[in-house]
Structure formats: C-alpha cells, structure tokens
Design brief:
With 327 residues, the protein is an alpha+beta fold. It has 9 helices and 10 strands. Strand 1 and strand 2 form a beta hairpin. Helix 7 packs antiparallel against helix 9.
Length: 327
Amino acid sequence: MNINPHPFEKLTPDFIMDAVDAAGYLCDGRLFALNSYENRVYQVGVEDAEPLIAKFYRPQRWSDEQILEEHEFCFELVDHELPVVAPLKAKNGSSLFNFGGFCFALYPRRGGRNLELDNLDSLHAMGKMLGRIHLVGASRPFKYRPVLDSKTFGHQSVELISQHFIPSELQLAYDTLAADVLQQIDQILQQVEGVEYIRLHGDCHSGNVLWRDGPHFVDFDDARMAPAVQDIWMLLSGDRPSQSRQLSEIIGGYSEFYNFRTIELRLVEVLRTLRIMHYSAWLARRWEDPAFPHNFPWFNTMRYWSEHILELREQFAALHEEPLQLY
C-alpha cells in the first residue's frame, strides 16, 4: 500500500477528462499520455474538434505568476507573428486553469518533423527565428521567472549531490573536481560580466522544435532570463569544425534581426557544464516521483556517478579551451 502517494497519481483518465471538461471542452474519451517527466502532458480527444494537448504542471514548481508570465511571453511572440505554440485562452481571457489542486494549460495540437541539426539551411532558418524571438525578449525583462546563473544551476546542484547522493567512495573525487569546475565557471562569468540577459526559451533543443515549412517552437516551461547564446548552443553537434560551421549558419540568420555579441561564445562550455550539473540534480530532486526510477533506472548507480565525474573532468578541460569561432 502506497502510504504517501505522489501528487501526479491523482491524474487518472477520469480526473484528466473532468478537468478538460471543466475548462469548457467536451472530451470524447480518447486519451494518450505524451513523453513528459517534469510535468504531465496528455493528448485529449474533444468531441467534434481536433484533439487538445493538456499540460498539468508539477505542483509547487512554479507560482501562478511565473506560469502566467511564461504564457504572456508566448502570446507576445505570437502577436509578433512568430511560430510559437501558445496556450489556449478561456472566454474570460485566462490561459491557466485550476482543477482538483492542479494548475493546467491547454494547447492546440501541432504536428511536425524533427529539426535536422546537420542541415545548414535549417540552422540558418532557426537563427532567423531565434533572432526575432530574442528581439522581442530583449524589449523588457521577466518580473517573476528566474535567472539562469551558477548559483542555482551549479552550486546548489553540487551541494545536493554531494550531501545526499554521491557514493562515499567517490565523495572526495567529486567534491574536489566540482569545486574546481565551479571556480572556473564563476571566473569566466566575471570576465564576461557585461553580457546582456534577456527573456528566452531556455531549453531550445531539437525536441522542442517542430519543423513544418520552418521551425515552430513549443514548451516554454523553462523560459527565463539568460544570455542569448543559451538558445543557440544546444543546436550545435559534432566535432569542433562542424560546430563552428553550424554556429556560423545560425548566427548568419540571427544577425539579420538581432545583434549577437561574440563575447557570449565564451559562455558555451559554461552553460553546457551548468546544464550537466543541473540535470543530475534534477533527477535527484525528482527521485521520489515514481516515474523517475521507472524511466531512469541507471541513475544513482556507481556507474552513473563514475561517468558523471568523467564528464565533469572533460568539461573542466573544455572550460580552459579557446571558445568556438565563427567562420
């Protein structure tokens, strides 16, 4: 018997359909769970209409103000005729619904194929769209959503892992290496202190881009204030020459709409390293969610932490290398 059930266990098919019905859409009984772990996302059939996407937010992760600020950013981008999949609004203008203790949003269903990261023409088009998004994003700051910084993504992540997860056999190696990595990250951030932080997508990898005659952006759940290059570096892949070619195509399109500051290239490995640290801490923080041990069975094993330390060593070396160059 599960004495302390996880909140998401309340999301039974009947609960989900009742929530969507309460939002003003009559469900037809079709329900399909989509691949999502931080939140819970479902495709829900609606009578005499196209199916909707229902996104139930993880309780206590974001405040209502932070969620609505994400929505407002999406609406602002749509108003500028940008290809963003924004949430639907109720007749009263609200885009955030509440039902049975959960906040949720509804989205139109959109199809598309995966972004081809090795296609330079596609990357050029991505650059154009990101330049337009960042032009809007730079017009004013977020008021409620967080900033991507080394404290929350780096120092707090390392503290959690060191105190509660790293095996004792690896404790010294991890603590020593993590301290060196964080010191180097903070030093680089101080050297590029004049970098502008703007509103942006925050998690702009290929899985959050649908390609339909061009890129369409979905899932702004991680939108925050960050350097512009945060939305760019995750689109790079392959060896260093390949990444430089890809970067040049992206920035070529990007610069048609917004000025890219080349000093931000010094932050690529910083942001990559912070993402690696934050990802491990994210898995750790969510380990009591039954979906995580089931879908990430390799986490919190001796092999995982040994490979994590090796990855941090590689990143420590990368932090000392010269930044990528534009062709």
